[in-house]
Amino acid sequence: MSTSSMPTATTVTDIPEAMPHGVNMLHNPLFNRGTGFSAAEREAFGLRGLLPARVLSMQDQAARILENLRKKPTDLEKYVYLNDLVDRNETLFYRILIDNLEELMPIVYTPTVGQACQQYGHIFRRPRGLYISSEDAGQIAELLANWPIDDIRVIVVTDGERILGLGDLGAHGMGIPVGKLSLYTACAGIPPAMTLPIMLDVGTENKQFQTDPLYIGMPHPRLRGEAYDAFIEEFMQAVTARFPQVLVQFEDFANHHAFALLQRYRDHYRVFNDDIQGTAAVTLAGLFAALRLIAVEGGPRRKLSEQRLLFLGAGEAGVGIADLVVSAMVEEGLTPEEARGRCWFVDSHGLVVRRRDDLAAHKLPYAHEHPPLADFLTAVEELRPTAIIGVSGQPRTFTREVIERMGKYNERPIIFALSNPTSKSECTAEEAYTFTGGRAIFASGSPFPSVKLYGKTYNPGQGNNSYIFPGVGLGVVVSGARHVTDEMFEAAARTLAAQVTETDMANGRIYPELSRIRDVSAAIATAVAEIAFREGLATEPEPDDLPGYVREFMFNPTYDPMV
Q1: Which range of residues forms the domain containing residue 402?
Q2: Per-residue pLDDT averaged across 549-559, rounded?
Q3: Which domain-ending residue is among 46, 71, 101?
Q4: Rounded to two decimals, what is the model's pTM?
Q5: Which residues are catalytically annotated?
Q6: Are residues 87 and 116 in the same domain?
Q7: How much is the pLDDT for 18?
Q8: Within this chain, do residues 57 and 163 fall inside the same structural domain, yes or no?
């Protein structure tokens, strides 16, 4: 497959048979190069006089963009500026994003995307993707037919009910699919023309949005019950008929829908839920790497199956992590019951135990025999976990007392504060290191800066799903896997952990540096595709050189000659 930035009818997708011409070329972000058009291209496409005379290289254009971007006074203004760029020149946007990923990922995704979603109607410039509202029930196939590109391979879809840790943002949640798909391209090379963000606008319970004249969605209460289920069913049937090779990623659905939708569709379509399965894989990888780090430093070599995990938050992320951890522990020799017994949960009502009669179905496998405990600190004192994992969306709930207890009971306490955005993190990196005397192995969902304490520098890990979902998606696309299995996510976790180098370990990192994420994604994609081919799930022919094929498939934004 071509890695050119210019999709054509025989390479990336079946965009128009005839190339745009003149002003239309400059207004098409898939083809526009602005001042980067060569003299021959300007002649061929009727651009002479429509551009300044001087031809600039992509590097010169990128320098100008970065110069202006770095002058913006706030991250939200930087977000808007980058969105304007992608609406003008998609190739240049992805070149800049790939080359400056550590600087720009926090802008195009967490934490800035959370603020952007809260204000989406007020910063709205140009629609991206598809908006399908509950008013369109019975006509979803007709709406999907309006999308001009047939070869869509990855869709990220949300109904906006549980955006990050921010709650119901309705149609303003469209920023999440848009941001996720930019990472599919930047981190794993999925060609952008093969991606499609979709907002299922079924209303909102957000009273502020219902009365905001600039809210872009339907300002009525959410569709519920059988009507909602029928709407989703119509969408799934229509979207897979319109795009037969598509992978659908469910994103930021509320707990009561997330588990149900994954269970309902995972054996029928190419689907996964990143909040459940992607979060699980990146966390499992972090646990593997943390145990390896302890051993590298001369500590005892311990198995995952010897750990005791205590989760704060028992929603889709927490239970998804526990389910994958249990699978990995079973591989190490435990029974499923023994493995689940090493995973404990505290929710908003206290410790999850069998005698409680208020537990949702997804919590029941982790309801153990134990007297009720009202709060997280007491649970830490009673259970003495080796790792605490925060997926609560409640900031500063890993208090000083909690962190100090973890340091008291463990030489190297594992503290993962994974809630997004940064404002929702259960604790900061500085707090984790300070209150354990620098002994914590820390990871968070959104980035924290390095911390200087006790005469050394600590580099906090970022357990960001972007280490997992782009590579998994790439593996599914290149193999044409009919389904996305738990085995694929466990393989992704083990592959990610294996990508942590000795240098990373020496610097205290339990995840690779973001600058290597395309290499990481390629390795994960290869592992996922290998499973698809081995298990008979693939619909594409198996290449002789799978790693090389994965690399060849990956989109590389450059200005290849158009004439």
Answers
A1: 277-463
A2: 97
A3: 101
A4: 0.93
A5: 109, 180
A6: no
A7: 67
A8: no
